[in-house]
Amino acid sequence: MTLALTCHGIKNPLVAHLMHVRVSFSSLTLARKLHSIASMIKEELLKEVEDFLALSGMAHTAFGRDAMDDPSFVTKLRRPSRDVRSRTVEKVRNWMRENKHLLRQAAE
Fold it and tell me: For the CA atoms of the chain, what is the radius of gyration?
């Protein structure tokens, strides 16, 4: 990093180091914000899944097996440390959308 900064006219190694620390801090702040957004998306998905389970009467293991080919999917989703990929969010939401008829059957 010092060499790259030196090429941009910063010859003082201390200033170059401080700029590197500033860039690292900015990256850390961005990472925290992204993690916070990912956590909100995960919590939103979990609420949608829990609502679907409640309205359909479906067992969480059956939901996981049918939606994700993983009977323990909902159990894993409930864990606070579990991250969810955008592909997973999309797949689960598409499955729930395609299986709305299960909600109507439960209401009848």
Answer: 23
